Amino acid sequence: MLTLPHIGVLPSGPLNAISDVAGVTVGHATLAQDSIQTGVTVIRPHTGDPFRDKVPAAAVVFNGFGKSIGLVQVQELGVLETPIALTNTLSVGAVATGQIISAIAANPGIGRTDPTVNPLVFECNDGYLNDIQAMAVTAEHYRQALDSAAAEFSQGAVGAGRGMSSFDLKGGIGSASRYATIGGQQYCVGALVLANFGKLPALTLAGQRVGAQLLALNKPDSATPEMGSIIMIIATDAPLDARQLGRLATRCGIGLARTGSIYGHGSGDLALAFSTAQTVPYRPLEPVRHSSSLQDNLLDPLFEAVADSTEQAIVNALFAAETVTGRDGHQRQSLYDMAAGQTI
């Protein structure tokens, strides 16, 4: 019988989700009919307009087999100016269009009296379960996901995670949080993943190699090379600058590796971290920016929180997912269904 483990020793927030970071919300638009098994997930960094009030951010590429949009400007300027969107590989353009439309509606000067906006869309390939060539996701689905964003949200086979596979099982959206204490002050770190990676023999849960046991129950084609991806998003209320957030994003790789990933050749493995502690105004009133950030030598508790919450989010995605049948009768069993009646 499967029991959901708690990764590490740090406590989680009340929701054990990225939205334990105050102001962060998540919404989904899920398409689930016959061969269309896909969707959009949106992460809002705060309740305001990120074009007007940007947040510090940084992205890290572990393995660049991906087709995301917007990373170049994030790396150059170190800020987010739209919500973060997740979808399937061939729907990046449609979702970016939705982001642009939404930003222009809130800021009519974009591209005229104001600069253009930097849409930020991450993707994974859900083509095993979803008819990805149908390109069923539209700009309106981005709007639906954005409008539904809330602190409490579903995980598993929902939104962008609807058609995703992980360790030859059903993958999808997972989230978790951890509290870290620095200098007597408690900070929250939240993770959200779009899990679409891994081969079953490598699956490791809380340090236990369970993949080999599951292979005895089911025989997926685990000899084929890994062709999946994972997107890892970190939010924190700790005061950090973009350089420090890049260091946090790098620690996502620890949590990812613990679950059995080797960042395979065909896997796109990307992480992004942002801080809600302070915003960067679009039109500053003063020429010098006044901000604060933690000392670098105090960041270890946050690194631990990132590693543990990332691993927990991946585990939560597997535990939350349901069995899905999609394109051409392809099916991915949930972890629970594959392990039914077994003690693991």
From TrEMBL:
An example Gene Ontology molecular-function term: aminopeptidase activity
Pfam families: Peptidase_S58 (PF03576)
Protein name: D-aminopeptidase
Record organism: Collimonas arenae
Keywords, ordered alphabetically: Aminopeptidase, Hydrolase, Protease
Organism classification: Bacteria, Pseudomonadati, Pseudomonadota, Betaproteobacteria, Burkholderiales
Family: Belongs to the peptidase S58 family.
Broad class of enzyme this protein falls into: hydrolase
PANTHER family: BLR5678 PROTEIN (PTHR36512:SF3), D-AMINOPEPTIDASE (PTHR36512)
EC number: 3.4.11.19
InterPro entries recorded: ArgJ-like_dom_sf, Peptidase_S58_DmpA
